[in-house]
Amino acid sequence: MGVHIVGLGTIINVAAILAAGLIGMTVGRFLNERLENIAVQACGVSTLFIGISGTLRRMLVVTPEGIVTQGELMLIISMVLGSLIGEILNIQQRLEDFGTFLRDKSGNKGEGGFVDAFLTASLTVCIGAMAIIGAIQDGIYGDYSILAAKSVLDFVIVIVMTASLGKGAIFSAVPVGIVQGTFTLLARLIEPVLTQDALSNIALVGNVMIFCVGLNLLWKNKIRVANMLPGLVIAVIFSFF
User: What pLDDT does residue 107 have?
Assistant: First the structure.
């Protein structure tokens, strides 16, 4: 029987992001402003469609009578109530402050777009059911296959974001390590709460937030997506009613 290394999936995920960041920095050196702009736009459009496809996969259900939608009420309540809570707690500003802290401590004080790159990449790779489900399966069963698959996706995303937005995207490895590592360590405790309905709700709300990240990439941070994060908790609570 193999040895179960707790958190191996998260370790792989963090390593993939760091490797992707180094590749992205190398690629980014060859991009002039015009190429950077088109790369950001392409990244934004791709992120939009990742969010759209994930949202529709959860909302649209095929029945003998045809295609019906589900989860609209849950989505509206989770997004609105969660955003109000996040705005009161000012989560966006706290994450920006954390990004500034990482920028200064890593010797990148002169990097103008560091915090925006950090926020954009972090929200893209941390939000979603794969991170939560994968971390829990890793913690309970030692099965890191979901996080390994997520690592491949994050690898591609972070290469593009680092090349187009800057080296701040590399530091999305920090929240990924914290968030997924916490879920892995607390897996047995929180497993009963994260029912199939709860995970489905998280996936739906999370994908809408990823869509919002894509909007920000295209239209320069008009939506404070980080302040919407409590909506994921509301989505879990909603699954019990």
Answer: 86
Report pTM.
0.85
CB atoms within 10 A of CB 169: 33
Place of tokens 């994908």: 207
Looking at the DSSP bridge assignments, the partners of residue 61 are 68
Which positions ≥6 away from 235 have C-beta within 8 Å?
74, 78, 82, 198, 201, 202, 204, 205
43-52 per-position pLDDT tens digit: 889 889 888 9
CA-CA-CA-CA dihedral for 69, 70, 75, 77, to nearest 10: 120
End-to-end CA distance of the chain: 42
Task: Please check whether residue 213 is in contact with residue 120, taking contact to mean a CB–CB distance below 8 angstroms.
Answer: yes
Q: C-alpha 227: how far from its chain's center? A: 14
The predicted model gives 126-131 an average pLDDT of: 82
d(CA 30, CA 26): 8
Give the chain's count of helices (H) and strands (E): 11, 2
Instruction: Classify burial at 222, counting beta carbons within 10 Å of its beta carbon; exposed 0-12, middle 13-18, buried 19 or more.
Output: exposed
